[in-house]
Design a protein that fits this description.
The structure is a homotrimer of 261-residue chains. Chain A is α/β, with parallel strands linked by helices. Chain A has one domain (10-257): Ribokinase (UDP-N-acetylmuramoyl-L-alanine:D-glutamate ligase, 3-Layer(aba) Sandwich), CATH 3.40.1190. Chain A is 51% helix and 13% strand. Chain A contains 11 helices and 8 strands. The first copy, chain A, has an 8-stranded mixed beta sheet, with helices on both faces. In chain A, helix 2 links the parallel strand 1 (30-34) and strand 2 (53-55). In chain A, helix 2 (40-50) packs parallel to helix 10 (235-248). The longest helix of chain A has 20 residues, at 210-229. Chain A binds chain B through residues 36-39, 41-42, 78-82, 108, 111-115, 187-191, 232-237, 239-240, and chain B through 37, 40-41, 44-45, 48-49, 54-59, 61-62, 65-66, 69, 83, 239-248.
Chain lengths: 261, 261, 261
């Protein structure tokens, strides 16, 4: 297996992503997703299309059992009710205890103070990755978005940070890469970002270097989005084609389409 | 902007609908939807396809923040748990205080007395529009469905009433129009009516006359349904095509297909 | 109507399934589904595609009203929160009192002891059918999966048992049949099994013999899956095609494709 914390050439990243995808398909990692009700179905379908096995329970008295039997955990804060909040704290603690990689997707922390405080508290439980957009980063990190601010936050929190948008930036404080793939239709389907983070969580289950796993997952997702946009006639068919593309994406496509810097 | 409470000719309505659609695409209004878990994903996708921006949280302690930052609010009573009920009262009150237009979709009030009483209480918070089918109107208004009964209810409650079914009737007490567009496949996809009401809510965010906004939203939805039925091979592909059609529907199609009386 | 508890020839089963499908389309039975939030939307769409009418509320204070007005009830234990647990007990009791057939889908009882105990308690409320996979059967019945063990469990509990997987086995203790239809893509779409059980529940509403109803529903679902796999390019388009296939499946297709033993 690839050594942790290597600094591969950018030109190697598409092949590394293809390797990670192959391992997800081969090992079928179990990914427990504590996610919002809008995203649950599409998130589960993205994981299944990629070859992973999702579970989605939110009940506080059984979530520890599910996390213990999973290979990785995603906590997403959308449609955040009381039971989910309680479950999130239990799940993150179990993940730490069982040394399962876990990922935080602090959806909409810029829209609600309650949510932002809760996310800040969860950050103390050491997720391997936090994925957010610019407004969410500013709310959570109390800083403008810049490469320096992202790096500093990653170093402070000992985690990888993925800032997603038209371009995705991924850093662990030392290494930084930007992914320029994607398609405008990706912003016209609900929960697409949430589901993409779930795919990254599956990659963390099979790749010990969180930065590489994140680059791999986000690159595959963005390239699959580009492939899906070709036959799509609008956002409805695009979402369907994206699932097909995730199941079919291969090394040649990743090499040909990747736009990284 | 169009003056409120005008009485346009029926033959002008397709163009007005095209104007409203264009404004939704241009202004991308934020629409907060307190809706049932069956409908959430499709509702969000309908809004995104039309160019609006959905948010869906149901947590009582953050819903006021979301409503305050939204341009319009939808409250839908399907799969109605305790937390949603509490959130609905807070959301409606916030909408009134912040003068945001809000819409009530009292799903299944004919099936449960608890739900009907709750809907009646929400009506006191002055929604701009209530959308329901015949059985739901009879339960809520305690009256048979007739044009007169609809008009009376609209005048009493100072709101627009949309009675949807094979034909949609929309009245604010003074003006009445019937939309005869649509397709039988529209009753074979779950939450289609819920999602259509969300589209209307987006129209209310960009058109101050609630009656015109409702006519525009329901006409666009029904015409998109007709367009989607052409390539569809069944209810599965129909739902996908409907999202594509909502993203693509244009003035010419609305003019050519509208059947109003 | 067909006499209860007949022992038809295996070669008659495709025609019986076609009859049951025709009755679902003609009678449009109401099926109340207490199911998990991941499965709700797809489950409702499967029921609508087949011609049934779904309702999905989970609120404990109104679920009895919905069950009383429904023709059959499904209780599925996925994403099992407190409110759903309370509602499940009320719903099962109402189904017994009103003599509505009800079905238990004890999802993931092998993953959580809390869930397994709850499922065992629900079994005392006499579902007409319990549908599960091998691991779930072992957890619930405390026995290895074998034809004998399935038969014994069915006789003990006076219910039909459907063990689903690559091959489905259905027994009521006396009769046993195996369905070998299906497609590998069926395991790549979330909640497909949950939705298939909902289709069976609709069949129980129009066929008094639970074993025949179960065979009919599972056969139709598996054959529709095979039909859907032909045009599908991956799991996304497969799910869409499956809904179309359920709406379109006919007697000739069932006769031609059924593989039973």
């Amino acid at each position: 297996m690839r050594a942790s914390r290597s600094s591969p050439l950018i030109s190697d990243l598409p092949d590394i992503a293809a390797d990670v995808v192959a391992r997800v398909r081969e090992k079928s990692p179990r990914v427990h997703c504590l996610t919002n009700t809008v995203a649950q179905n599409f998130t589960a379908n993205v994981l299944l299309a990629a070859g992973a096995v999702p579970s989605m329970t939110v009940a506080p008295d059984e979530i520890a059992d599910f996390v213990a039997r999973a290979d990785a955990l995603l906590i997403n804060l959308g449609t955040f009710d009381r039971e989910r909040r309680e479950a999130a704290e239990i799940a993150a603690e179990e993940a730490i205890e069982e040394q399962r990689p876990w990922v935080l997707d602090p959806v909409f922390v810029d829209r609600s103070q309650v949510r932002c405080s809760f996310a800040a508290k969860l950050m103390a439980r050491m997720p391997r990755l936090v994925r957010l957009n610019g407004a969410e980063f500013t709310a959570l990190a109390n800083a403008e978005t810049s490469e320096d601010a992202l790096k500093r936050y990653a170093l402070d929190r000992l985690c990888t940070v993925a800032l997603t948008g038209a371009t995705d930036s991924i850093t662990d404080g030392a290494r930084v890469v930007a992914i320029e793939n994607g398609d405008p239709l990706m912003s016209r389907v609900t929960a697409l970002g949430c589901a993409g983070t779930a795919l990254v969580t599956a990659c963390l289950a099979v790749e010990v270097d969180p930065w590489l796993a994140t680059v791999a997952g986000l690159l595959v997702f963005a390239v699959a989005g580009e492939c899906a946009s070709v036959p799509a006639g609008g956002p409805g068919s695009f979402a369907v084609e994206l699932l097909d593309a995730l199941a079919n994406v291969d090394r040649e496509t990743l090499r040909a389409r990747a736009r990284l810097r």
